[in-house]
Amino acid sequence: MHVITVIPGDGIGPEVIDSALELLDALDVDLSFDILDHVNAARYRREGCALSDADVARVAASDGLLLGAVGTPELEDTDYVRSVLLRLRGDFDLYANYRPVRLWHDRLSPLRDAARRAIDCVIVRENTEGLYSGVGGNLRASSRMEVAIDADINTWHGVSRIMDFAYQTARREVCLVDKANAVRAGGRLWQQCQRTCAQQHPEISSTHLYVDAAAMNLVTDPSAFDVIVTSNSYGDILSDLAAALAGGIGLAPSASLNPATNFGLYEPVHGSAPDLAGKAVANPLACLLTAALLLRGLGLAAPADATEAAVAGAIAAGRVTPDLGGTLSTREVTSAVLAGLG
Ligand code: ATP
């Protein structure tokens, strides 16, 4: 029996998590759920803390965490989201952000050239350092002498372990994406770590692209990529671009993993989408594909495969929400996927 903690969160988070729980209940898997439905923006506003030490202890006692979305436009600063997501990433050292992108149906691609549409790659994004480390500040703020610094932190420890993970994940190729011609110190370290991994994995081909060329190639021939390994900030941007090539963020799953402990935080790439909350039109497929990633992470490949096949079936039959050109509600799409589980 695996215990999964669940944080539905804010906005459409609880709606898509309901779909995922319905799916996991329908599958023949031995899971139990510890639902932390009090971890949300309302509690943060009320108590100044959304995720308590006791909540973190419950997560620590589980085998994985499934999260809907955290965020609300009513809280202007980023402290709330950081206090939940960054705390979880930090406490569980979830350094590998794994974002698979796959074109589930030809119709969903915005590209005209059919031969190049078939994107099926993984973006491996470093999740704990880089430009998003929060190191820096403003000197002489709000004056014409202001200096603003956001440091790009790259450590051998952080880069070598994400590179190892990328090579273990790859089927045929690891493409390092950086901007080493302009951001040279970090670029040097990333390239050095890639050379080490390339020697250890001669069966995997090792390539490199500057981030501007990678963005261009993702649009001109996304089918060429297998694994892209990159920093926190470039991974953030490229994974949204890649998701758009596969039908949009309503379909994009992700996992933040610690490959050493095998613990993972599984969440759809999209956020709380406040414009859609309460309207019953949120696409649940990203969250259902996230549940499939969770199953795979627990070593349950057969129900993960069944879920992905059922999602592909629902898309092929046009049983989808408005963001994918359909007319169905969140619940109706969930029922269509459940009916396709076979
Ligand atoms: P947050 O601040 O929590 O990240 P956000 O609205 O800034 O929220 P997203 O939630 O990622 O960012 O969504 C951006 C837009 O994409 C939404 O406003 C919505 O229109 C669309 N979108 C996101 N998720 C879905 C979904 N599951 N189904 C359909 N449309 C979605």
What oligomeric state do these chains adopt?
single chain
Distinct ligands, ions and cofactors found in the model:
adenosine-5'-triphosphate
* Domain unit count: 2
Number of alpha- plus pi-helical segments? 11
What is the strand arrangement across the widest sheet?
A: 2-1-3-12-11-4-5-10-8-9
Q: Please name the CATH topology of the largest domain.
A: Isopropylmalate Dehydrogenase
- Count the strands? 12
Overall body shape = globular
- What letter string, H or E per element, gives the SSE order? EHEHHEHEEEEHEHEHEHEEHHH
Q: Biggest sheet, open or closed, and with what strands and sense?
A: 10 strands, mixed
Helical content (DSSP H or I, runs of 4+) = 25-40%
What does this structure look like?
The chain is an alpha/beta fold and 342 residues long. The protein has two domains: 1-99 and 249-342, Isopropylmalate Dehydrogenase (3-Layer(aba) Sandwich); 110-245, Isopropylmalate Dehydrogenase. The protein contains eleven helices and twelve strands. The protein has helices at residues 13-26, 41-47, 53-60, 79-91, 156-169, 184-200, 211-220, 232-245, 285-297, 301-316, 330-339; strands at 2-9, 31-35, 64-69, 96-102, 120-126, 136-139, 147-150, 173-178, 205-210, 227-230, 253-258, 263-268. Strands 2-1-3-12-11-4-5-10-8-9 form a ten-stranded mixed sheet, with helices on both faces. Strands 6-7 form a two-stranded antiparallel sheet. Helix 7 packs parallel to helix 8. The protein is globular. The model has no long low-confidence stretch (mean pLDDT 96). Bound molecules: adenosine-5'-triphosphate. Adenosine-5'-triphosphate is lined by residues 12, 69, 71, 249-250, 270-276, 282-283, 286, 323.
